[in-house]
Amino acid sequence: MTIRVLLADDQNLVRAAFALLVASAPDMEVVGEAGTGRQAVELARTERADLIVMDIRMPDLDGIEAARLIAADEDLAGVKVLVLTTYDTDENIVEALRAGASGFLVKDTRPADLLDAIRTVTAGDALLSPGPTARLIERFLRSPSTPVGGGGGPDCLSDRERQVLTLVARGLNNTEIADSLGLSPLTAKTHVSRIMGKLGTRDRAQLVIVAYESGLVTPGTGQRQ
């Protein structure tokens, strides 16, 4: 399958560089470029991209609001948003994840890692830049905000499902979760899907937020309080 990628960044040179990089991958194609968040939302609706590489700070409509509009549009339910930011201490990253982004990377990420991130997020996994993740969660995730998810909290989960959610929050993929718990990858995937249904979350990134906001795990430990 060819991954259809939309690029949203207000800097022309940055977009051009990303476009060349994405076009160099045999399993990807660039289906549009946007200089503002509003253009990104409009192109998402017309071009049917699989994933949008979204800058946070853009004129007219920033990447956070653009991600929120995309997440709220039922017709765009399959579109993933991968946020890129210049600064790994930007508190807006957490707000972007709350708004519906499926992951983030800093802009000094190696080209090959960006391509891998596009594949990871398109496949349905969360992608959180590992260096700043725990620090960001610790500083900003507990601030007052509208809770993520429309279902119950972790208390509605079985013991096994809480184990799986804890591992998701630590950044493990389905195969790693399966290995850790002695399950098959398909069973791990089924658990993750069931957890998302119970918690009313749209993807693994929001599962991470729920796990930390609820206190199921704490930054740097991955353990229940």
TrEMBL record:
Name the domain of life: Bacteria
Swiss-Prot/TrEMBL GO biological process terms: phosphorelay signal transduction system; regulation of DNA-templated transcription
Response regulatory domain boundaries: 4-122
Asked if Ribosomal protein is a keyword of the record, the answer is: no
The GO terms describing molecular function are: DNA binding
| SMART domains linked to this entry | HTH_LUXR, REC
Residues where 4-aspartylphosphate is found: D55
Span of domain HTH luxR-type: 150-215
Mind listing the UniProt keywords for this protein, alphabetically?
DNA-binding, Phosphoprotein, Transcription, Transcription regulation
Q: Which is an annotated Pfam family here? A: Response_reg
The protein's name: LuxR family transcriptional regulator
